[in-house]
Amino acid sequence: MTTLFTFRRFLPTLLSFSLSMPLLMLAACGQSTTSSDTDSEATNTTETEDSADAPRMALVLSGSSTDQSWDQAAFEAGERLEEQGVEVAVSEAVDPANVAAVLRQYAEQEYDLIVAHSFSYQDAVFEVAEEFPEVNFAWAGGIGETAENVADYDQPFYQGAYLIGLVAAELSETGQLGALYGYDIPVCHAMGEAMLAGAQQVRPDATLTSAAVGDWYDVAKAKEAALSQAETGVDFWIGCGQGPTLGQIEAAKESGGYATGYVGDMSSLGPEVVASNLIWNMEPLFQQMLDDTVAGTFADQFYNLAIPEGVIQVEVLPAFQDDVGEEVLESVEETKEQIAAGELEVPFVPN
After folding, report:
1. Residue 33: pLDDT band by 50, 70, 90 thresholds?
2. What is the 8-class DSSP label of residue 31?
């Protein structure tokens, strides 16, 4: 029997001891109030049957569930599903070199859906998926690479980045915008280009300077790159990857610019410079995967949920709303509604 407890702080340590140890689970515990023993027995039977029929999801993270960014967004989505009765297991800080072993463990434990939440997990996902054809896997590729039991899920952050561009056009003094990517992959490249396109709707002279750091987590390297961009006049940044974004925040503190939180609320890391957040609400995404798993419609899916589904969201922090102005804030909201209604198609520029 697997011990059930909340394991946010414990699992990375346990995994470092041995990848062969039983993986820990986060399970929902239902409670009911009944008026008779007969009703109680019927309720318990129903709950047991529902629990047996419900799909089980495992979530594998490359970083920490408290990173205020990429991994926390996925973790919190798993928590909300767990509150609704879905059994969710989580592994944190799993190195790509070790992820195949973790995926195999979950597959051997017959999890119905295993989400490998990193672009770097691609090879391991497809390798293990071939070994367990009855298990569904999903990976964060954003490139449409799928298989019979492997789904890819897009990160259409570019839609949110377009709205960020409206804010950037107002806050930037120079009109020179900056973008840093962990790697210059389509998902990342499209973010910078979409921000520029949004900014140019209000400020046609806006420009973009972009660069790939070559690492998702190297904050020091990203900060150095952002400071180099600041020397050329860049004073508003968007990042693709936790490290690039954290580096931008630090650079903005030194140069007097503005930064954008990456797929989470990162305002506490730089309340004087983080003017906006691009939020990734992953609960509807994971729920769709689970629904398709139950329905048998998971094969070769490329999930692309964005602003219309409430998955991609943008917020302007209260401390900066006066500087942005009511007119721009209204424009952000109106533009979001146009995108959601299909009246405005944000340009996707992958390279």
Report:
1. very low
2. -
Task: List pLDDT tens digits, range 162-204.
Answer: 999 999 999 999 999 999 999 999 999 999 999 999 999 999 9
How much is the pLDDT for 272? 98
349 lies in some domain: no
CATH number of the domain within which 165 lies: 3.40.50.2300
Pairwise CA distance, residues 313 & 316, whole Å = 10
Residue 4 lies in a domain: no
Q: At residue 218, what are phi and psi to the nearest 5 degrees?
A: -80, 95
The candidate with the shortest Cα–Cα distance to 195, out of 247, 132, 256, 240, is 240
Same domain for 128 and 161: no
Q: Is residue 108 part of a domain?
A: yes
- 102 is in which domain, residue-wise? 11-153+283-306
The C-alpha atoms of residue 56 and residue 73 are separated, in whole angstroms, by 19
Q: State the pLDDT at residue 52.
A: 52
Helices (H) and strands (E) in the chain, counts: 12, 13
Q: What b/e readout covers 167-177, taking b as 16+ CB neighbours within 10 angstroms?
A: bbbbbbeebbb
